[in-house]
Amino acid sequence: MFEMRMDLPQNFGMKVRTTAGRGFSPEELAQQCAEKIVGISDSAPLEIRDQAIAFRHQVSRTVEAYLKQAVQSDRTTVYNALTGAGHPHLANLIRRL
């Protein structure tokens, strides 16, 4: 018999997110990332909560921009690999995504 115990804080929260028929978009991933980076307490004063929400939004937009750049960079890498392997038609299909 296997038993595992964990002491977790009382306010420990877990979220599960899924998509159907696709992966997560850069926007969705950026939002998830910003939520992890910028925690906002329910008991914080309203002014501080408002600042934290605005900061989280800015972090999300920054992360989103870099994720989109990473996607484009990876597509360039795949395009170049396919072109170099003699598959220019496939490479052009990837480029147009």
Question: How is the main sheet built?
Answer: none
The helix content is 55-70%
Number of domains: 1
What's the total count of β strands? 0
Helix and strand string, N-terminal first? HHH
Secondary structural class: mainly alpha
General form: elongated
How much of the sequence is in beta strands? under 5%
Annotation field: number of helices:
3
Q: Give the distance, in angstroms, between the N- and C-terminal Cα atoms.
A: 51 Å
The overall pLDDT average reads 90
Residue runs with pLDDT of under 50 for 5 or more positions: none
Could you tell me the radius of gyration in angstroms? 20 Å
Quickly describe the structure.
With 97 residues, this protein is mainly alpha-helical. It is 61% helix and 0% strand.
